[in-house]
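User: Here's a structure from my thesis project, written as structure tokens. My advisor, Dr. K., wants to see whether a designed sequence matches the one we expressed. Can you design one independently, without my sequence as a hint?
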């Protein structure tokens, strides 16, 4: 059977199994069907049914080229594709300072990190580490300080805030500014080589980064400031991750390691601004955002300095100590009162939710199947959970009731001292990170023209990323370290096929 025939059969079979149930809330029959199709693989002699469709019916079978992450959900109606295209235009547009003759694109800053969403999420993929002497755009520094008042401690305890911003510089270092204003400072990165010797004698040189802030233009930072670098993650599949039922995510949580496997997994609880209540965190490197809309609004505010319906302050991340920034002209729409009006904001959110996951490649290749077995046997799936089924009721019909293969549990895990940033966020400690999805990871170089993995891009390839794992992932990493070269190649071939 050709891959094309396999794809057609898999798509039809998936639709028959998952959509045959009545359109109601999850019933016993649904739960049994979902348990069956999400059960981990035990047969590694062939690809699983539907495995070529990691995004279910949303999966894109477009060419695996530089635009592979920019395709719409494949099951999207023709009428909704127009909204996707307009949302893409807004996502790519370059914003300018206010006032401007371009009234639908002004309001940048006054302090900012990027002029467009696309500048961070390169081709809708992951960001990159700056070259020596180059200003960073898609890698930036988060800032916060420990709580020092009862009010701050109460706000953290009730999830109303995730961090306490640095009093002068806020929660993110802005390295650019509009004319007439000073940028906050510059991010400095220094690397130290760390050689790691594998069991077969192969030496892999990791690079350990150290971060600092130089050229501060608004006075000193608090001495106890905590810095955390963050690289922009890929945008594909976020609408599907948003559609995973909360109970399905929490079913994988084991905060006290009750089963004794050394893997905990904890949910983060964050404040949902739209609902005015705590919610499960799903997005961001420490699961600090509850949904795609709030993640988008925070990016507009912190990265570009734009106001939205969720965060209407026109000055973005500027603190009260930065009076000139707060007093600067803004580009607010006269009717909406914000720089990104509701209709425009909704189109960007719609676009983001519908960036399709590319189809699997080489899923039946013997080397890939051997690597898949090693991935499972090394217990990588304890955190990188292969499969979920999305909820029936979602923000859009495209994401409803799909069998998906994201390879994440969306939970927090202690990744050891080597990856620790020492900066808590919500319930995430300074050693914990949310498990990142792996779908599409094999197309990183094709889409972005480079490979920068982990939260700060320190890993230049997937083997380096694995070797940085520690804490709860230490045992899995050790299993990789004692593999033969052929086994490592098979494991990397599997990851490359995702």
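Assistant: Designed independently from the structure alone:
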């Amino acid at each position: 059977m050709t891959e094309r025939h396999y794809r057609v059969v898999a798509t039809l079979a998936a639709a028959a199994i998952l959509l045959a149930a009545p359109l109601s809330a999850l019933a016993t029959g649904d739960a049994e069907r979902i348990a069956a199709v999400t059960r981990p693989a035990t047969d590694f002699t062939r690809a699983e049914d539907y495995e070529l469709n990691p995004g279910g019916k949303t999966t894109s079978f477009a060419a695996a080229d530089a635009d592979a992450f920019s395709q719409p959900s494949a099951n999207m109606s023709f009428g909704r594709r127009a909204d996707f295209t307009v949302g893409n235009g807004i996502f790519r547009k370059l914003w300018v300072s206010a006032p401007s003759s371009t009234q639908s694109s002004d309001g940048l800053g006054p302090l900012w990190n990027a002029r467009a969403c696309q500048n961070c999420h390169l081709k809708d993929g992951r960001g990159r580490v700056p070259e020596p002497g180059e200003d960073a755009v898609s890698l930036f520094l988060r800032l916060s300080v420990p709580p020092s008042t009862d009010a701050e401690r109460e706000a953290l305890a009730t999830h109303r805030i995730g961090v306490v911003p640095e009093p002068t510089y806020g929660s993110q270092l802005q390295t650019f500014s509009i004319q007439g204003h000073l940028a906050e400072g510059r991010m400095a990165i220094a690397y130290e080589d760390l050689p790691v010797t594998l069991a077969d004698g192969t030496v892999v040189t990791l690079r350990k980064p150290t971060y600092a802030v130089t050229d501060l233009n608004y006075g000193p930072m608090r001495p106890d400031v905590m810095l955390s670098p963050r690289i922009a993650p890929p945008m594909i599949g976020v609408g599907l991750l948003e559609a995973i039922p909360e109970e399905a995510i929490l079913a994988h949580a084991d905060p006290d390691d009750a089963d004794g496997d050394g893997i905990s997994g904890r949910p983060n609880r964050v404040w949902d601004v739209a609902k005015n209540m705590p919610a499960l965190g799903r997005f961001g490197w420490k699961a600090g955002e509850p949904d795609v809309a709030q993640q988008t609004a925070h990016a507009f505010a912190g990265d570009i300095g734009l106001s939205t319906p969720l965060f209407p302050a026109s000055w973005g991340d500027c603190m009260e100590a930065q009076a000139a920034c707060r007093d600067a002209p803004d580009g607010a729409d006269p009717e909406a009162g914000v720089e990104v009006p509701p209709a425009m904001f909704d189109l960007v959110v719609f676009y983001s939710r519908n960036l399709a996951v590319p189809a699997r490649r080489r899923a039946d290749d013997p080397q890939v199947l051997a690597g898949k077995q090693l991935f499972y046997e090394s217990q990588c799936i304890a955190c990188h959970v292969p499969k979920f089924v999305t909820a029936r009721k979602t923000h859009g019909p495209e994401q409803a009731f799909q069998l998906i293969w994201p390879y994440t549990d969306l939970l927090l895990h202690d990744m050891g001292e080597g990856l620790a940033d020492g900066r808590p966020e919500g319930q995430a400690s300074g050693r914990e990170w949310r498990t990142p999805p792996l779908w599409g990871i094999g197309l990183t170089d094709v889409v972005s023209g480079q490979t920068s993995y982990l939260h700060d891009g320190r890993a230049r390839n997937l083997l380096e990323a694995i070797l940085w794992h520690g804490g709860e992932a230490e045992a899995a990493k050790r299993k990789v370290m004692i593999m033969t070269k052929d086994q490592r190649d098979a494991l990397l071939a599997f990851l490359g096929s995702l």
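When you compare it with your expressed construct, this may help: Residues 82-238+291-340 form one domain.
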